[in-house]
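Module 6 notes. Inverse folding takes a fixed backbone as the condition and produces residue identities as the prediction. Think of it as a translation problem where the source language is geometry and the target language is the twenty amino acids. Below is one complete input and output pair. Work through it position by position during the lab.
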């Protein structure tokens, strides 16, 4: 296995706020991404959790896809 595979399997040692706290930030994060705002520094712990939690990452990806679809159709 490569280092990447281990990180994906075991997660990161960085500070992880957990599912509940990350869930509270998800809407704001996705809306910032959809607007093209820089997010890496403001959402560092959130992004750590997304790297560690497959379920939350899938929710985030679904929300981002929905926001992009709305933007493309002029609904947003």
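Target side of the pair, the amino acids:
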């Amino acid at each position: 296995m490569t280092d990447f595979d281990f990180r994906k399997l075991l997660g990161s040692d960085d500070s992880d706020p957990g599912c509940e706290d990350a869930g509270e930030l998800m809407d704001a994060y996705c809306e910032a991404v959809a607007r093209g705002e820089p997010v890496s520094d403001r959402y560092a712990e959130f992004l750590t959790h997304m790297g560690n939690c497959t379920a939350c990452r899938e929710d985030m990806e679904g929300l981002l896809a929905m926001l992009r679809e709305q933007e493309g159709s002029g609904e947003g």
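Reference fact for the lab report: The CA atoms of residues 26 and 53 lie 13 Å apart.
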